Give the backbone structure.
Amino acid sequence: MKAGIVGLPNVGKSTLFNALTSSKAAQSANYPFCTIEPNEGIVSVPDDRLERISRYIVPKKLVPAALTLVDIAGIVRGASEGQGLGNKFLSHIREVDAILQVVRCFEDPDVVHVAGKVDPISDIETIEIELMLADIQTLENALPKAERTAKSGDKEAKLRVDGIKKCLEQLAKDQPLRKLTLDEAEAKAINSFGLMTAKPVLYVANVDEGDLEGKGALVMKVREFADKVGAAVVPVCAKLESEIAELDPADRAEMLESSGLTEPALTVLARAAYRVLGLQSYFTAGEKEVRAWTIPVGATAPQAAGVIHTDFEKGFIRVEVYTLDDLETHKSEKEIRGAGKLRVEGKNYVMHDGDICHFLFN
């Protein structure tokens, strides 16, 4: 699963991406950072449950969950028509599963805003309009072929035509596709288009060091807008976070304390991005490692096992499950079993966030 970092030029997008993907905090959590491409990186998702589990099951290492971030080329007005790096921007954003839109919420005369003034709502609307225009273009280009194929009696093509028309009707009302509900078959038929306004969005308010909690007037405008569209907002000072990310743990803790932060805002952002992607974690715990595994919300036990290895899903028999509360109450797996708290679940079990599991497979 990938999240794309999107924004206008000079909003702090690349500063934020670099801080997230080069953070010593991520590396110290024993997740091996690696750059996949110049504009793509993997970042760990901080989770204090790993450390809590390791108090009772002491491992050689802790391995957090991770997500892939893509630093997408800055958008300008007219990107849907190829302005700036529009084509590159659009090709990258179609490939991600969620959008993290960085919105400038700070004044700085030394950093020129591409529109000449700092207006976060205008920035949001500029990108939304470009994405809607690009989606309209994609759908209008795809419709004639789908209609020709549908005339031959192809059922999937008929579903595709219905889905395309419903999407075009939604976009004609200046409404993004994430607000449109298609039935499962229609959604599947148009899934390959990578429609951008159908992707969930998280707004990242880039603030200055005087507004780390995001209570200033500019951020409040973003919060009000986000509430109306059912999105979340995370305030981040990209400049400060990039400085914190480069520090050793002791110096990092000191800087956080002096800034009035209990943890880097990047950790809050990573967790929020994880949720926006519709992901959750379950854990495996042993002497070798305590590891968080990433699964979609709603995944079944066999699907969760398949994340470890495809053979685990194919040969799934059952899963033994307990909770972190069980572990903190009874102190060991042996005592959990003795107290009758170790549950045995079958193929239809829907995983819960935070399950600690042992899979049995053929």
The first strand starts at residue 2 and ends at 6. The longest helix spans residues 120-151. The chain is about 45% helix and 20% strand. The two ends are 28 Å apart (CA to CA).
